[in-house]
Amino acid sequence: MNQHKQLFRKGDQGPAVAEICDRLIRIGAIKNSSDVFDDVIDAAIRQFQQSRGLTVDGIVGPETFRRLEEARWSLGDRLLSYTPGHLIHGDDVSVLQRKLSDFGFDAGRVDGIFGILTENAVRELQKSTGFTSDGICGPEVFRAIERLNRVVVGGSPEQIREELHHLPRQTGVSDKVVVIDAGHGGSDDGLSGNDLTESFLAFDIATKVEGRLAALGTTVLLTRNQKTKNLIDEQQRAIFANDSNADLVVSIHAESLPNSNGNGCAAYYFGNEALGQRSRMGQQFANLVQSEIVNETGLNDCRIHAKTWDLLRITRMPAVRIEVGYLSHKTDALKLKDNATRDKIAAAISQAVTSFFDPKN
Ligand SMILES: [Zn+2]
Fold this sequence. Notes:
Elements lengths: L14 H12 L12 H13 L10 H10 L19 H12 L13 H13 L10 H10 L8 H10 L10 E6 L9 E2 L2 E2 H18 L3 E4 L11 H10 L4 E8 L9 E8 L4 E2 L1 H18 L3 E7 L2 H5 L4 E8 L3 H8 L1 H18 L5
Bound molecules: zinc ion.
Zinc ion (ZN) binds next to loops.
């Protein structure tokens, strides 16, 4: 989370809390407005975060607030169009993409962001229904969707398309561009515990992966260097990966919880079942990397999970975030302090990347 932006949590009060409340009322999560962040608001925020695939911490930072904004839009509430540099985000866009995809138009991944692929799909829909093909989603398009709804089929064609798109890329790792994102950095150390910080750990593993993959001929791009001073948020990291035309993004973080026995590693890919969103290739890479790390290191298997964090959502290629262990857990921390374990994790990640692009798989 960017430290320069404000966070709101239980106990806070003021106009910002009233605004949060207002968003919750709009989506029907609570009934009464208030400018005090009380238990009711806390519970509503946590439930919202849960349902949206966000971290459930009851804290309203920029990401949660943006998602509250997005959640208020239903399809038909506003005109939707592609505006480069200022893409429209919202639940209405997710619904539109889902429908376009169901109707057989390629709108890309269902991610709630009106990008160029969504515009192309709207144009195709307009063409096939005899309207001016301007890519703008207004009343005519909404009516066309209403009519087409009656012949809708199920399934997730966009997930199959993602898989078809990946197939020709399975030509080995030597011609691939892989972004390795070491979490945090600069003045942001991330989480800490047992004399370890996330920023150190993530960067160390990232450079080890870089070495291994570079030796195989892969172009490896790091989102930051060791001396990065400016804070780079998750959106900027995602945009960097998109601008680099990367084939895969691997983000490295660690967990830490006060007074907890939590331990083990987990991998996260883009998805949210409630909104019918999932990156199938992200899920596939998450599976690969998770089992490699567990096998190599013996860390507890906390499995793979779908999340909608900015880095996973905004990236246009498979992206996976790995939480390599709990800094707060004695045994995990002991392992992670050992250079040999960090080498094993890097080897596991490198192996998973190799398998992911292996023509034989
Ligand atoms: Zn982190």
